[in-house]
Amino acid sequence: MPQSSKIEILRHSLSHLLAAAVLEMFSKSQLGVGPAITDGFYHDFDIKNGEINPETLPRIEQKMKELIKRNLLFKKTTQPIDKALKEAKDKGLEYRVELIEDLKKDGAKTVSFYQTGDFINLCKGPHLKSTGEINFKAFKLTKIAGAYWRGDEKNTMLTRIYGVAFAAEKELKDYLKQQTEAEKRDHRKLGKELDLFVFSDLVGKGLPLLTPKGAIIRQELERFIIDEETKRGYLRTYTPDLAKVELYKKSGHWQHYKDNMYPSMNIDGEDYVLRPMTCPHQFMIYASRPRSYRELPLRYAEIAKQYRKEQSGELSGLIRVMAFSLADAHIICRPDQVEQEFKGVVELVQYVMKTLGIDDYWYRFSKWNPEDKKKYVNKPKEWKETQAQMKKILDKLKVKYVEVEGEAAFYGPKLDIQLRNINGKEDTAFTIQIDFDLPEKFDLTYVDEQGNKKRPMAIHRSSIGCLERTMAFLIEHYAGAFPVWLSPVQAQVVPVSQKFNAYAKKVVQQLKDKNIRTELNDSDETLGKKIRQGELQKIPYLLIVGEKEQKAKSVAVRDRKKGDLGPVKIDKFIEKIKEEVERKQ
Amino acid sequence: MPQSSKIEILRHSLSHLLAAAVLEMFSKSQLGVGPAITDGFYHDFDIKNGEINPETLPRIEQKMKELIKRNLLFKKTTQPIDKALKEAKDKGLEYRVELIEDLKKDGAKTVSFYQTGDFINLCKGPHLKSTGEINFKAFKLTKIAGAYWRGDEKNTMLTRIYGVAFAAEKELKDYLKQQTEAEKRDHRKLGKELDLFVFSDLVGKGLPLLTPKGAIIRQELERFIIDEETKRGYLRTYTPDLAKVELYKKSGHWQHYKDNMYPSMNIDGEDYVLRPMTCPHQFMIYASRPRSYRELPLRYAEIAKQYRKEQSGELSGLIRVMAFSLADAHIICRPDQVEQEFKGVVELVQYVMKTLGIDDYWYRFSKWNPEDKKKYVNKPKEWKETQAQMKKILDKLKVKYVEVEGEAAFYGPKLDIQLRNINGKEDTAFTIQIDFDLPEKFDLTYVDEQGNKKRPMAIHRSSIGCLERTMAFLIEHYAGAFPVWLSPVQAQVVPVSQKFNAYAKKVVQQLKDKNIRTELNDSDETLGKKIRQGELQKIPYLLIVGEKEQKAKSVAVRDRKKGDLGPVKIDKFIEKIKEEVERKQ
């Protein structure tokens, strides 16, 4: 077991105090476990449903503070395991009985307890010396959740109380501020407020519906990446979202990836299944006619829908969905082209990240796990060779990366581009994979300069990732205040009063004619309220129009970031905003 | 029974002669049926497999011509039905026995036979007076196919010989010429020759894969229609391609349309199904928040994948597929807006047709069949009202249409825009539907000026149809020689010899930089062969470059339609082709 850090010991001790407080306040409660976790701690309780609720938390917190002020010592005692087991049984502490029995199975001869005041708890420690070491202004109970005993849904549902804790009060304040910010930026919340996407119980969990405003963002991202890929020599394909199960048996998905796939559908005696990946489909295009070395590399790209089963509990907003659209591509190339092509993909990904304004990302070199025969194709020699090749390329590219075993694709190693979302959860945004396996399985070939049949290599890659997930990242990254080119509404015209509605409409039309996404706010509200509405919708430009503007054929520009920019001729404004869109600002 | 036309009688008589010829040549054959059909006739034979093959046809044709020259009379005789039945049984003519038994069941007392020379056949007639009336230069046996006795696959497979026949030799020649042309234009054949799409046995029948060249056409069509719809006030959505079965139970698809739907998939205890239509999905977006009369009409558009089961035998190229992408939209509007919106859709469809260069289309007003309770929602009052409304609108728009019963959607009447493909088969390209039913089923509402909840109407429509099918029409319409804006390759640079490859590459890059889809043909072939290759690929412009062009920074332009245009400065050519693309030429 790794040594506990000072802050972990503090958090663990707070978990102990939480249990002490709850037992003192609700004597009928039985204890589950209570560890330190990232940023804090929790403890589980078997307590009457509803007895503890969000309103109870401040009272429990108060009781914990009292215990801290009493500066109680953490006293450790040790007991022979059988004695402890008998005592627990006699007291009817069923959870403790289970825990001790497990320790016994693992060969423990003794168990340890920690006591503060009258409260004593089975615990391996370590703890602080005394509660006085805790800064009682630097912790906070945050929420209540249900949790099955030992995480098994066949067991009793316990009540879990979470807390956060730090060494200093300032750290707690910073943390809570950051949390509030994260909540404000949460793409699920902003998605609703800005009307970007909705869910429907009738359609199903994990199946988002993009509303017109969300659809604009998606369409801009799609056109951007398609045009950029075309510039870089990619060719587009449209392949079906389903195929015979046979195809995935040939590719190996059925053997290695079936748990993630949808159930098959029998149509006219033939089994079809929604695709979990695009690779076999694009390989079928490659294989549709003989290929010469002169044609390679062939870079097939597609915005491809893919279907993977997710645990229902894992589904979340646009980040984890039941069906997603991947900006996918498969580069089929000669072995001597792999390095150059891999480099090209890394450069494309870096360009995309820069364009999207994201710089907080890192690389993960995801490798095979030789022990996992179910997940990976059994070609140790090829695995070793390809991983060595990939490492060499990465080192040559001077890309910094972390190495992780057991995260490769079943057919080859991956370079994952990792992002952290606003709640701190890490996710793979894009991935670049070298595949030594599928070209062989599908017998892909090309004829070399000497007229011999040769086996090409394949690179699987994404450029802008899964569009749903990338949208979620962008919503959180920009807190909904998208750059102009991605903004669903780029400008809103706001007449100072009804009198200027006609002029406002004319301005809207002029902007629309120039393909600027423009709205009119001609509601009966006051100007102040209308401006506030526009700001809440995070529209880049509000264009206020009244008497003066009407006379001068101008608009008073209110910039989302810089505030009032004063009166600007309509033509000038159009020029300015079009240039920003052009420059993807 | 309708009276047979003169040409039908001629064709029927040829079918009789075909039977006579085959029986004379292959005495062990038994006869199936032999009617006149569009453009010709056929006859079925129970004959040893392979005995008749395409090489046999000219010999049979020759035999028929002999019979014609002998100017044989068609002699009609009548027999009491039981006598005829006994004779057929005695002779072991099992098919004839079945036919006579059926006539008997229908109450016939006698049956008729027609005889020419020694050949006599059960036949209701009518026939010509004598074979001399047939122009033996105006018919031709065309092909052999298998056909189950009485169309039932449980029965014996018979050999069917097809022929075409006309009154005059010129008509036959014209017909055969048109057939050859149709074959040349067949999108399945051109799709292969021009490498636009492929099929894969591993992926499945009816699931085309668009190759890079086909994908360009599709992408151009998509962007064209999306931009055009946006100009006309449509809003885009992205909704999932599957949903809970529950959604389609609510919409009524499950009750009225299940036979066309894919099988459902059970995921985590919930049944999902691939969508046959987009309407309920877009309605869920409408229903996601309260709507005011001021927001209407809302025009939700989407390039939506849809999944409908087709009979495996019906699947054909890009025309009938297992999954297709519809340029779909649903307009939700106030009842007083229906007429204006309907008109807007008709205008859009007309604009699309004009842009695509198609003028041979017509309108079909598809109405409900009151008797078919399974197919249509049972709301006779609403059916009558909406059909009357649609008729009024159509008459007002001065749109000429044919009326057909039993072709409506289950929720309302349709205006179908009909096209005929190159083989003469009629297909619905686009459709506009007025829906009185689904807004009620989904309880869609809006708040009117007085603050009262009201029920909107819905218009379901397609603008450019199903992209796969529209592509098929366009391939056949243009015989693969697409207008420049749709051409996968817009220009090909052809150096007169290897010496000018470097200059040719420079020209290619200059054009590519201006987003002109350009290829280089730097193969070792002769100039003549390279030009022929380019012509076969139906590339709009071949740009020949040699010494003179290199010096003058020009290209020698060879126009697909107009031939040699002589030398043109590169900049001038770029200007010209960009303007053509802009004008969608």
Question: Would you mind describing this structure in some detail?
Answer:
Two copies of one chain form a homodimer. With 585 residues, chain A is an alpha+beta fold. In chain A, 36% of the residues lie in helices and 26% in strands. The first copy, chain A, is built from 18 helices and 28 strands. Chain A has an eight-stranded mixed beta sheet with strand order 11-15-16-23-20-19-17-18. In chain A, strands 1, 2, 3, 7 and 8 form a five-stranded antiparallel beta sheet that branches. The longest helix of chain A is centred in the first third of the chain and has 20 residues. Chain A is flat. The model of chain A has no long low-confidence stretch (mean pLDDT 93). The interface between A and B is large, with 53 and 53 residues.
Q: Low-confidence parts of chain A, pLDDT < 50 over ≥5 residues?
A: none
Form type of chain A: flat
> Given the structure, what is the number of helices of chain A?
18
Q: Please state roughly what percent of the residues of chain A sit in beta strands, choosing from under 5%, 5-15%, 15-25%, 25-35%, 35-45% or over 45%.
A: 25-35%
The main sheet of chain A orders its strands as 11-15-16-23-20-19-17-18
Structural class, from helix and strand content of chain A? alpha+beta
Quaternary state of the chains: homodimer
Radius of gyration of chain A from the CA trace? 30 Å
Helical percentage of chain A: 25-40%
Mean pLDDT value of chain A: 93
Largest sheet of chain A, in brief, is:
8 strands, mixed
N-to-C span of chain A: 50 Å
Number of DSSP strand runs of chain A: 28
Largest interface: A-B, 53 and 53 residues
